[in-house]
Amino acid sequence: MGNKEDYMRELEYLPEFMMDFHDQKDLFKAIYDQYHGSHQVLKDVSWVDGHQFTIDIFLWWMGNHGYKLQKIRKQGIDFDNPTETINHFDKIRKRGL
């Protein structure tokens, strides 16, 4: 078992699909693309601002205090797949639609 500094440096408080910086960028671009036209808050917030605050401040702070973002393991609930959603909006963005 390591110490807190190792845990934080290795980003173990994040789900695996969010540990890579480039994957984080794709995630926040997808979230922005999915909601920027329908959510008033996003008119003044870019995907970059959301990414930086959420990863670099909020989730880091939560991890530093012993919390971890993880998938709910409740049986019988059909959750969306984050990778599929991210890939969907990435394809749309690359087509320029």
Quick gist of this model?
The protein is an all-alpha fold and 97 residues long. The chain contains four helices and no strands. The radius of gyration is 15 Å and the shape is globular.
Characterise the protein shown here.
The chain is mostly helical and 97 residues long. It has one domain. 55% of the residues lie in helices and 0% in strands. It has helices spanning 4-9, 21-35, 47-64, 82-95. Helix 2 (21-35) crosses helix 3 and helix 2 (21-35) crosses helix 4 (82-95). It is globular. The N and C termini lie far apart (48 Å). The relative contact order is 0.17. The model has no long low-confidence stretch (mean pLDDT 91).
What is the beta-strand fraction?
under 5%
| Main sheet: strands, sense, barrel | none
Number of helices: 4
Taking pLDDT < 50 over at least 5 consecutive residues as the criterion, the unreliable ranges are: none
Q: Whole-number radius of gyration?
A: 15 Å
Question: How many β-strand stretches?
Answer: 0
Spell out the helices and strands N to C. Answer: HHHH
End-to-end separation in angstroms reads 48 Å
Strand-pairing-aware structural class: mainly alpha
- The pLDDT mean sits at 91
* Count of domain modules: 1
Percentage of residues assigned to helices: 40-55%
Question: Judging from the principal axes of the Cα atoms, what is the shape?
Answer: globular
Main traits of this protein?
mainly alpha
SSE layout:
Blueprint: H1 4-9, H2 21-35, H3 47-64, H4 82-95
Helix pairs in contact: 2-3, 2-4
